[in-house]
Amino acid sequence: MVLDTPIDQVFDYCWEVGEAASEPVPGQFVLVPFGPREVMGLIVAVSDTSDLPTEKLKSALAIRDQVHPVADAWIALCRFAAEYYQRPLGEVALPGVPKNLRTAKLVALNRALKKIADGFSNQDATPFGMPALNRAQEDAVEAIDAARAYAPMLLYGVTGSGKTEVYLQAAARLLARTPDAQILILVPEINLTPQLESNVRARFPGLHVATLHSGLAEGERMLSWLAAHHGHARIVLGTRLAVLASLPRLALIIIDEEHDPSYKQQEGLRYSARDLAVWRARQLDIPIVLGSATPSLESWLHAQSRRYRRLELRERAVPDAVLPTVRLINMERDRPIEGLTSTLMTALRLRLERREQSLLFLNRRGYAPVLHCDSCGWLSNCLRCSAFMVLHRPEHCLRCHHCSLELRIPRACPTCGNVDLQPMGRGTQRVEEGLQRLFPEARILRIDADSTRRKGTAQAAFDSVHRGEVDILIGTQMVAKGHDFKNLTLVGILNPDTALFSHDYRASERLFAQLMQVSGRAGRAGQKEGGSASEVWIQTRYPQHPLYGALMAHDYDRFADDLLTERQQAGLPPFVYQALLRAEARELQTALDFLQAAAGAIDHPGITINDPIPMTMTRVANVDRAQLLLESPSRPALQAFLRGWMPLLRAMRTRARWSLEVDPVDI
Ligand code: ADP
Ligand code: ZN
Ligand code: ZN
Fold first, then answer.
1. Which ligand is closest to the CA of 382, given by its number?
2. Which cofactor does it need (predicted)?
3. Which pLDDT band, with edges at 50, 70 and 90, does 501 fall under?
4. Which among 109, 442, 481, 659 counts the fewest CB atoms within 10 Å?
5. pLDDT value at residue 1
6. CATH number of the domain to which 145 belongs
7. Do residues 26 and 72 make contact, with C-beta atoms less than 8 angstroms apart?
8. Residue with CA closest to ligand 1 atom 21
9. Same domain assignment for residues 329 and 464
10. Domain boundary residue among 511, 544, 565?
């Protein structure tokens, strides 16, 4: 039996045969005593004997036989994830199961089970209101429909090319052919689930559709999980955590915006939902569709080497809708006022006159990234991190985005007493304020993590944009993804340059994807009579940069091929495989010492172990952090090394806290 604990072992419990109606079988959830508590465990094997002496064996308390046992394939998936990411099986399998299911009293559980067997007969999988597909969409749907075994497909389609329609019609064909099949659709962002959910529900009014994401209340999450697990839910939509849902009749997996960084879990079990989904598809021998306008270089390489089949949608789906014209504004010549160049202001004014919507993209929330004293040079450093505290004017505070420390805005400079402290730089709140001054008649809405902190506010904000109650939308990456705004003809990108010179080798891949995504929000409904052609204006100091050139040409193919060549020459992923050991401690030296000892703990032919170094942002919340990067051209070699290394690390005595990440993305 496995339990949700960091101890990497399988625990033995006994069960008296004939004690109750049911006998334990692998895959069942069981209530057991663990220390002073009662916890839910998962049976992974049943045996007549145990290595423990009988008097040491504790009895299991109750088998939850109301819940079907999970399938062997699901345990195998968890076991693979546990081994690949070097975590205990219990820590993989159990956290994926909703908390309520693990703690629920029997009455609550029975009530939930009754509820999910409610409601939907699932008799009628007839789709409703299917638009005619265009040629390219038709070909893509045909290809997905024809795949009857493991077949990874990269659906490479420009923004607005109707990828969603391909997913829905491929789903419809599968459900028509296999009525009890289950389909898993992953989206990168919670805020995209309502839009897709309503599309799916409208399309399949007779089907049980369940959603799984971290925004659900525990009760709802349990219902969705059980509906998926008992096979009632035919279509399951969710964010990355849904990849670990138990789906006994899973027959098709779809990953929308497969390149998106949020498919990577960044704490605990640091898994890639995309990679696990592909593994799962291969294990179940079913097709998987990875959709994107800017595929990850990993998937791009697979498509180039024909391990993935490439399906292409080169044009926008709505008749007359074309990709927006992308233009650059040289900020050295056209100096911005309130963050906006005169060119962009003119473009905004035109949209206001024509009652069209505009979107301004600035990936920096808050009012200003730092507060500054002109006379002595004081800066608003965080007291606990190697980072600046961000000025949040509407909330009247300085806030650290890394440790959440919050301080009142000082009236005067803490070092010299100067009362004239100045914000430096510009975040979304400051742009919003400037817009209100420049365009007092416009209806302006800001959408970022601050404006949508309360539950339901994000959805309400997006709804008001869709209803046309907003003229100018200003936002962070939250507004860049997936949303199908119908009346938006202008996108302004305020300050993307910083990412051009990042030390992170993935920064330009990400920046390109992000700018392509946000540009793709413009002109989705086609040009109206007397309306504007769709435009994207990028404000930059580096108009010659090749990344912008590729963006203007909408040429991801070349950009991706060039990046791959660079990566190959530099010996970077996806041509090498990496693992990152992180350590943190009160003293940087403690962390570095641990990493140094870890590096010397074992022989490592075929593995490059780099020197331990402090992380770029060394201090967070009074803890210093360092890292050790391992690389190998062979994934199996790296895996074999890690298997031998982990027990040695676990046995090492250190005051540093450490964690290992396989296939790290932020290094
Ligand atoms: P993507 O996900 O590729 O960015 P969407 O799936 O959001 O694009 O589709 C963009 C728009 O095109 C949507 O408004 C959708 O309703 C519309 N659309 C998709 N397929 C068709 C089609 N075959 N005919 C007409 N409109 C379509
Ligand atoms: Zn000062
Ligand atoms: Zn801090």
1. 3
2. Zn(2+)
3. confident
4. 659
5. 80
6. 3.40.50.300
7. yes
8. 317
9. yes
10. 565
Residues 6+ apart with CB under 8 A from 412: 418, 419, 421
403 shares its domain with 432: no
Ligand found nearest the CA of 404: 3
Q: Measuring from each residue's beta carbon to the nearest atom of ligand 1, which residues come in under 6 Å?
A: 131-134, 137, 157, 159-165, 317-318, 484, 524
Same-domain pairing of 633 and 612? yes
Using alpha carbons only, what angle is made at residue 214 by residues 406 and 29, rounded to the nearest 5 degrees?
A: 130
Range of the domain at 598: 577-662
Cα–Cα distance list, 340 to 383, 448, 517, 540 (Å): 33, 19, 21, 11
Q: Per-residue pLDDT tens for 524-570?
A: 999 898 899 999 999 999 999 999 999 999 999 999 999 999 999 99
Helix/strand number for the chain, H first, E second: 19, 28
Is pLDDT above 80 for 294? yes
Check whether residue 353 and residue 211 sit in a common domain. no
Let me know whether 441 and 548 are in one domain: yes
Cβ–Cβ contacts within 10 Å for residue 318, how many?
Answer: 18
pLDDT at 367 over 80: yes
Give a yes or no: residue 102 inside a domain: no
Pair 15, 34 in one domain: yes
Nearest CA owner, ligand 1 atom 26: 318
> Does 105 score more than 80 pLDDT?
no
- If asked whether residues 206 and 187 sit together in one domain, one would say yes
The pair of structure tokens assigned to 3 is 């339990």
- pLDDT tens-digit map of 435-469: 999 999 999 999 999 999 998 899 999 999 999 99
Q: pTM of the full predicted structure?
A: 0.95
pLDDT at residue 21 in the model: 61
Ligand 1 atom nearest residue 132's Cα: 23
| Residue numbers belonging to the annotated binding site for Zn(2+) | 373, 376, 382, 385, 400, 403, 413, 416
The answer to the question of residue 199 being in a domain is: yes
74, 95, 116 - which closes a domain: 95
Q: Which two tokens stand for residue 584?
A: 């943190």
Q: Do the domain assignments include residue 103? A: no
4-22 burial, b at 16+ Cβ within 10 Å, e below that, comes to bbeebeebebebeeeeeee
Q: Which residue from 98, 74, 82, 93 is spatially nearest to 2, judged by alpha carbons?
A: 93
514 vs 508: CA distance, rounded Å: 10
How far, in Å, is the centroid of ligand 1 from the Cα of 292? 14
Q: Which ligand is nearest to the CA of 166?
A: 1
Residues 502 and 532 in one domain: yes
pLDDT of residue 4: 83
Structure confidence at residue 49 (pLDDT): 85
List binding-site positions: 373, 376, 382, 385, 400, 403, 413, 416
- Say how many domains are in the chain: 5
Give pLDDT, residue 197. 93
- The chain-wide mean pLDDT, for the chain, equals 93
Q: Please report which confidence band the pLDDT of residue 320 belongs to, taking 50, 70 and 90 as the band edges.
A: confident
